[in-house]
Each structure stands twice: as C-alpha cells, then as structure tokens.
Amino acid sequence: MSKVILAGYNVDAEVLADIVKSAEGDWDLTPETLSAAYARISRDARPVDELRQIARADVAKTRRQNERIVFGLGHHSVAEHAVFNFDLINISRLAIEYLESHRLASYTEKSQRYIRLDSDFLIPEEWQQAGLKDELKDFILYCFERYEVVLEKLKSNGIDEKLAGEDARYMLPLAAFGQLGMTLNARSLEYMILRLAASPLKESREIASKLLDAARPIAPSLLRYMDPTPYHTERFEDTHNTLNQLMSHHPAPDPVPAPVPAPYEVALLDFTTDGDSRILAALAQHFIGGSFSKVQDWIDAIGNEGRLQLFNAITRKMSIHDAVPREFEHGIMTFEVIMSAAAFAQFKRHRMTSITWNPYDPDLGLTVPKAITDAGLQDELLLINNKATKLANKMGMKHPATPYVWTNAHRRRVLITLNLREMYHMSRLREDESAQWDIRQLVGQMSELARQVFPICAGFLGGKDQFPK
Ligand SMILES: Cc1cc2nc3c(=O)[nH]c(=O)nc-3n(C[C@H](O)[C@H](O)[C@H](O)COP(=O)(O)OP(=O)(O)OC[C@H]3O[C@@H](n4cnc5c(N)ncnc54)[C@H](O)[C@@H]3O)c2cc1C
Questions:
Q1: Hey, how many other C-beta atoms are within 10 angstroms of the C-beta on 257?
Q2: Tell me: the pLDDT tens digits for 204-213?
Q3: Which residue out of 329, 351, 355 has the highest number of ligand 1 atoms within 8 Å of its CB and is therefore the one to mutate?
C-alpha cells in the first residue's frame, strides 16, 4: 500500500526559536537532515522515514555527509530540499531588480500600486563616495514631494485614490524602498548569494552578506561556494573590452534610437514559423504514434478546417483557471520590447520567460501615464527627467549606481523569449481588466503579434475577463 508521510514544512523562525528556548537539551534545528536523508535514497534501500531518523540522530555527521554528496560528488539538487524564507525590508527598487532576476525563487513584494508611498529611500554609498549625497537626497525628496502633489491633483480631477497612486508613482526613482517576502531553496540561495556578492552595486553585495549571515548557521553544509570567481566578477568587463576592440574594426550600429512611439514599442523578432502545425502535431502524436515529422505532415494535410477542429477539441472544456497543454511550449517567440521601469517591475516576475535587458536609457524617452497627460501634468515628469539626467551625467552615465535616479517612467529595452504556453498565462493575468494599464497594453500588443504568427493556437489569448468570449 502506498504511504505518504509529511516529512517537513516551513515554520516561522521566531516560533522555532521560542520552541528551542523552552525545550530541554541541545536542539540543532536544520533542514540539512532532510537533504541528507533524501541524498541517501539513491544508495540506501531503507525506508526514507528511517533515513530521516538516522540523519536527525547525528547532525554533525549528517553535515559531513551532505558536504561529501552535494559538493564532493556534485549531487547539487539535494540542496533543493532545504527551503528558506526571508523578510527583506528597506531594499531599493533597483536592488529588487537584481534580486528578482533570480528565477528559481518565490517573491511577494510591496505594491507601489496599492500602497501610498512615504519618502523612504536609500542614499547609496557610491553616491556618498562621489560627493553627491546631498544632491541625490534633494532630488529624491523632490520626486516624493511631486508624487504627493501629482497624486492629489489626479484625485481632485476625479480619479480614485488607488488609480491616482498607481500613476503618480511614475514620478518616483528606483532608490525608493520596497519590501518583500522571499522563499527559495538552499541551492538557489547559494547561487543568489554568489551573484549578488559579485554585483557592481554595494547595496546588492550587502544583501548577499546579510542573506549569508542569516542562513549559514542553519545550513552550513549546503551553503559553501559563494565567493565570486573571476568568471562572475570580471566577465562583464572582459566582454566590454573585447567589444570595444571589435568595434574599432567594425563600427557598431548607431546607438541613438529612432523616435520611439509612446508608450512602448513591441517588435516580434523571431518565432517558430510552423508553430500552429508543430503544436497540433505534438498534441496528435500522442494518439497517432510514429515519428513527429510524419504526424506533422499529416497535420499539414488536413487543412485549416481540420486543424481548427482539433484546436477546438483541445480547448472546448477549458476553464479560466486551466493552463493550455504543455505541447504549446513548442511554439516559441522572441520579442524586443521597450518598456518602462514600472512595466518591467511586473514583467520580470514571469519566471518562465527568458528575459535579458539593457540598462535604463533616457534616450528612449519616458512612459507618461495618460492620466498625467490628461491632467496637463506631464511637465512634472519632464522636470524630474531633466534633474535625473543632470545627476546621472555628474555620476557618470555608465556608473552602476547611476540607475538609482531613474524613475518608474524611464525605459529600457528588454529581449524576451517565451513559448505560447507562458504567453497564455501572461495574457490571462496581464490583459485582464484588473491588470495595470502599462503592462496590460504591452502584453496586449505581444498577444496581437502572437495571433498573427500562430493564427490557430494563439486564438484564445486574452485576459481572464475576456475568457467567456
Ligand atoms: C493584478 C495583479 C496584481 C499583482 N500584485 C502583486 C503584488 O502586489 N505583489 C507582488 O509581489 N506581486 C504581484 N503580482 C505578481 C504576481 O504575484 C505574479 O508574481 C506574477 O503575475 C507572475 O505570475 P506567475 O508567478 O504565475 O508567473 P510565472 O513566474 O511566469 O510562472 C508561470 C507558472 O509557472 C508555475 N510556477 C512558476 N514558479 C513556480 C514556483 N516556484 N512554484 C510553483 N509554481 C510555479 C505557476 O503555475 C505559474 O503560474 C500581481 C499580479 C497581477 C496580475
């Protein structure tokens, strides 16, 4: 008979500390025993609950075993059985971008949409060292003051508090503080600490050492290799130098962009050219059998009507909560999108996409919320942009700490590769009426392009509110 045993679950660290305090004897509470027991499964036939007991009985021995298996033998996935939760308080929006670029983790972040923001922000050490601390502080205080003014003006124009706050925050810089809850396993944590420790941002490096200080005493055997190697610290500079050399022989394309239509530009660069028939053939292959290419030939032969019938059979009983089948992952698209920092903050949360991005670039212009333009307040944002650009020039446009001055309205280029299954997921959430207008319009444009290249299989793209249609 099958047996399922609850072997562990995460509990608030303060509760655990209270339990340890009130309990008799020495308690070494650690998730390492779970990792060690699971590591032994592959070579020890005893039931896993017994292996857990053995691991708990001698934690020091268990730690040595973990080190040997995880790092000696390279069985790294074992570290994924140990999970941590972190409260991250007073982290700048810029550092949150660095942090959340790690996809194998769960984040829940203070929303700048739903919460009216106080003037809580970071003065980064890099700016102090450059002798620009006071100028930066004056600028950020100015942004927060104008945020309040714009928010109140939008409200007095009849816009409700939530929507007014949602748009007024385009005035705020990336030095503004956020907070988040983060959950991740020891393997992801180790990698995150390594990457943050190699970051050009002092704030990120400090976060790395705080994460390490908090987690290492709990699971020392699973957190070992976090010192950045030259691969992590020098790769960026090496690449840059090589590109400079190459550009001395082959001049680079003109970096000045053509005028970019507001609020963004969405370009579909590449896609699976036979996406519809590929996805449908992958679905049919399971039933028909035989090689993929023969099934795809058959799908091509049944004509559009036949392909539509098949698509309808697949989607007819789908509800708003259902994901499209995995076979939709065989249709792949690459987009280049110019988006605001506000949109990027939301977009990057879609962990199943492959995204890379350029630094924020003031030459790409600003995303100005329509409510701000309608209220004749766009000059407020333009003034902030002028001040930010002046400060950025003083600090150096390419200095890694310069982006603290860019606002939620500033824009960057983002390269996105995703499959049609993730596109469906994103479209359901982000094209819904509850979604924020910036990302909603952006994802709407992506969906429109997806429908052109996958006319059958992308047919059901749209927000949750559109689903009944
Ligand atoms: C209207 C709206 C308001 C929001 N407000 C906030 C907010 O206030 N604060 C905030 O932090 N975020 C907010 N979000 C972001 C939201 O919580 C998600 O992070 C974001 O929409 C990405 O969705 P996802 O995690 O489902 O997508 P992806 O990361 O792209 O994942 C796709 C799917 O893969 C699966 N998946 C991925 N990773 C995991 C995992 N680790 N465990 C289990 N399944 C996984 C899930 O099925 C998921 O739906 C909001 C989103 C919307 C649409």
A1: 14
A2: 999 999 999 9
A3: 351
192: CA distance to ligand 1 center in Å? 19
| Residues recognised as catalytic | 195
Measure 346 CA to ligand 1 centroid, in angstroms. Answer: 9
- The answer to whether the CB of 51 falls within 8 A of the CB of 41 is yes
Measuring from atom 5 of ligand 1, which residue has the nearest CA? 111
- Between CA 168 and CA 162 the distance in angstroms is 10
> What are the boundaries of each domain within the chain?
13-81, 273-328
Strand order in the sheet with 411-419: 265-271, 332-340, 411-419, 354-357
Cα angle 392, 397, 398; round to 5: 140
Model pTM? 0.94
Phi, psi of 318 (to 5 degrees): -70, 140
d(CA 133, CA 392): 13
Q: Is 131 left (phi over 0), alpha (psi -120 to 50) or beta?
A: left
Mode of pairing for the β-strands spanning 265-271 and 106-109: unpaired
Q: Are 143 and 407 in contact (CB under 8 A)?
A: yes
- Give the C-alpha separation, 183 to 96, whole Å: 14
| pLDDT 10s digits, 396-413 | 999 999 999 999 999 999
134 Cα to the center of ligand 1, angstroms: 38
3-state helix vs strand vs coil in the chain, percent to 5:
55, 10, 35
The residue nearest atom 17 of ligand 1, judged by CA position, is 108
Report which protein residue has its CA nearest ligand 1's atom 39. Answer: 106
Q: What is the pLDDT of residue 259?
A: 57
Contact 339, 264 (CB under 8 A): yes
